[in-house]
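Quick one, probably user error.
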């Protein structure tokens, strides 16, 4: 029986995945490296440094240069985050979170991002979840299930009793390996191992009602 839902943040709760794309695109353009939305899909769910490695495939830079590039991207990303307000949260997302809580389910965030708490504060959702596990808690990023296992522990549930909602292939992989019920939205719907696909987040309410 489903007792809890663990949400990815970027691309699931908020469209901050587009800010990640824009920030990486700015860096790639400056370095004259081809980068498009298709390649960007490979960055979903993976850590900042692992994302950079994917962008730099076939190019050689020193570790020092790579660290500087990652910082540059994060600075651009954080400038974009400055524009976030509570209006950025859709009515569908707000209603879904409220409805899940009304049904007695636990809800948590499981995100690879080290900017998770900053983002949730900006949009007024910092107290909306029963637990938050993020990039500051983990040693291994998705597709490793670490962040979801921490989130499940913090809400006191077994993985098998939790849905994981993801827009990333790496996130669905992590959910499967961790023993969670993998639910996809957006790009991740093309993943072969998803149990359910969502068009909008509120489609979740049908699944937990089953
Ligand atoms: C994930 C995003 O949520 O967080 C990735 O899908 C991103 O694209 C990762 O690289 C790390 O985010 P941050 O904010 O720590 O750079
Ligand atoms: Mg995501």
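Nope, works fine. Designed sequence:
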């Amino acid at each position: 029986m489903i007792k809890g839902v663990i949400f990815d943040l970027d691309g699931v709760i908020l469209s901050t995945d587009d800010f990640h794309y824009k920030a990486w695109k700015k860096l790639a353009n400056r370095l004259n490296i081809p980068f498009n939305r298709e390649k960007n899909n490979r960055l979903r769910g993976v850590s900042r440094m692992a994302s950079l490695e994917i962008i730099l495939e076939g190019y050689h830079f020193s570790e020092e240069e790579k660290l500087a590039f990652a910082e540059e991207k994060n600075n651009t990303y954080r400038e974009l985050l400055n524009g976030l307000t509570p209006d950025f949260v859709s009515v569908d997302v707000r209603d879904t979170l409220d409805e899940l809580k009304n049904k007695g389910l636990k809800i948590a965030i499981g995100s690879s991002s080290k900017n998770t708490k900053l983002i949730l504060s900006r949009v007024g959702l910092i107290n909306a979840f029963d637990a938050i596990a993020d990039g500051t808690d983990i040693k291994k990023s998705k597709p490793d299930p670490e962040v979801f296992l921490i989130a499940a522990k913090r809400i006191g549930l077994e993985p098998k009793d939790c849905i994981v909602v993801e827009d990333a292939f790496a996130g669905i992989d992590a959910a499967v390996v961790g023993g969670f019920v993998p639910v996809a939205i957006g790009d991740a719907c093309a993943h072969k191992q998803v149990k359910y696909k969502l068009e909008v987040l509120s489609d979740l309410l049908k699944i937990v009602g089953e």
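The pocket of magnesium ion (ligand 2) is lined by residues 8, 10-12, 17, 44-45, 167-168 (CB under 6 Å).
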